[in-house]
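agent> fetching stored inputs for the NAP docking request
agent> found them:
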Amino acid sequence: MTATILDGKALAQKIRNEIKEKVKQLDPKPGLGVILVGENPASQVYVRGKEKACQEAGFISKKIAPDKDISQAGLMKIVDELNQDNEIHGFIVQLPLPKHLDAQFIIDSILPSKDADGFSPVSLGNMLINNNKILPATPKGIMRLLEEYKINLEGMHAVVIGRSNIVGKPISLLLQQKNATVTMCHSRTKDLKKITKEADLIVAAVGKAKMITQGMVKKGVIIIDVGMNRDENNKLCGDVDFENVKEIASFITPVPGGVGPLTIAMLLENTLECYALSNK
Ligand code: NAP
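agent> prediction call returned; pasting tokens
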């Protein structure tokens, strides 16, 4: 048995094409702002990808890139300006921020109607009470991928590894909303293998190269690999040992080409949702 590959790249391209067609009809054009503090190389790559996607979709894209030493007050001023900028319908603050800045305070200051990343307490709180508004892009992309492949989650035992505010916690809520029974695991979980062995579906969002091995999963498992790591040859890889696990899984996302491309597509979709809110 070899797993069906959940092709996030193809789905993301389809969604981006649909968005581009929609945007052609819109005037003014939707605008996405990105605040990138400092020169973190990974963040620069992510932001370039987001800017490129915006331009392709016909969005207005505005990047504000203050120096890494910017003060909390200085950054708050930029957030306030974007909150009031009528050309910018949604915006994000690229994480991580330099240590001297209070990232949560900054995110809390983004107007919920402009929170394109869906990271604000209002967006996350709405999800908690099944009142989904703007969803965090990565979990939203995962749900879209499962839907595309007509995977019915009802009654499944889903195991989520990782409990970050941007992936682990929100995906556990979205899976529950679709009637999966969810187990959350993290660095203090005892006997992870015992739990993963029982999973019908695993979402790995840890950040440890190939930590989920074939011996940790059961035959027919569905694997969603969120991790973005470098292997011993400096090649991009996920949290799952793809080559071996795909031999016994029923569905699996590759890295790259799985969850990652959908994150950007969902950010564009979220910006369109912010745009719609601005016209209400
Ligand atoms: P994170 O904030 O880096 O946290 C990692 C999580 O993994 C924590 O909850 C931690 O537990 C848990 N963990 C660490 N070691 C573990 C172990 N040995 N066993 C079980 N759990 C363990 O998480 P994140 O920001 O969600 O990122 C996770 C990965 O996804 C990273 O590789 C990141 O680059 C990638 N990512 C990809 C995308 C995409 O679009 N593809 C988007 C976001 C993130 P504790 O809470 O106990 O510390």
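agent> quick read of the result: The chain has two domains: 27-111, 137-259.
agent> awaiting further instructions
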